[in-house]
Amino acid sequence: MTKYLKALSLAFLLLLYSAVSLCILALPQAPARKRGILSRNTSFFARRALRILGVHVTSRRITWNGIRRRKRTYLVLSNHVSYIDILVLASRMPSIFITSIELRNTFPLGLFARFGGSIFVERRSPAGLRREIEWIAAVLGQGISVVLFPEGTTSNGDTVRPFKSALLTAAIDTGTDLLPVCLRYRLIDDRPLDSRNRDAVYYHGGISFFSHVPRFLSLRSVSVEHLMHRPLPSNRNRKDLAARAHQIISAAYHGKLPLSRRL
Fold first, then answer.
1. What distance in Å separates the CA atoms of residue 91 and residue 107, rounded to the nearest whole number?
2. What is the mean pLDDT of residues 184-206?
3. Which of 36, 79, 184, 235 has its CA at 20 to 30 Å from residue 92's CA atom?
4. Domain ranges of the chain
């Protein structure tokens, strides 16, 4: 599919996603039920967007040792290198994303984030932190999984940056398990990802969204691994949990943990 055909197909899909999301928001439903429907709607459209974009996702489990994942609510923690991460994670599990207040006011990303039921937080303001933790805890308490990028921003992929721990308090307050997930982009146009080609996928630094998207659309295919570690009980303090989750995701990112079969 050419870059222009991809752009047209994606534009149509986004228009359809917006229309369906607006209909869901207009439904006379309780906020919790409406948020759950929005998360499933986003998951449905994310899978179709990835297909248009030529992004192939392989899901694997890490160190599950025969444990079957039960259908339940998680605070999902993931490393972060691109806006494509959101589509990958949403396609695997209906979830609500935590994102920055700055994104809410950025067109069109902020609009799509609102359509997905995102929770917007001001990471640089301690004053509203307690309120934001309560918002996240309320969503988890409604039985809806929440995704957090604890690095706080995207990176160039050289390593996994240290995790910020404050928002993990929401999982501790609600007794919600953490689900560490590692995303590893492996191939770009059937060539191994390296420092020469990674910035066609990785979105970091001062580059603008609208200048990066055309470069991404010009790619024929992208392969990414979605690696899930077994859940971590939220029975430690937040800093210990953040350190443990970082250790797991970083080890998986650098290929130091055994993988089980594909899901």
1. 22
2. 94
3. 235
4. 3-262
Amino acid in position 29: Q
> For residues 32 and 144, is the Cβ–Cβ distance under 8 A?
yes
pLDDT tier for residue 171 given thresholds of 50, 70 and 90? very high
Determine contact, residues 96/144, Cβ cutoff 8 Å: yes
Q: What is the pLDDT of residues 42-83, one digit of tens each?
A: 999 999 999 999 999 999 988 666 556 566 899 999 999 999
What's the CATH code, domain 3-262? Answer: 3.40.1130
Q: How are beta strands 222-229 and 55-62 bridged, if at all?
A: parallel
88 pLDDT more than 60: yes
Cα–Cα distance for residue pair 78/89, rounded to 1 Å? 9
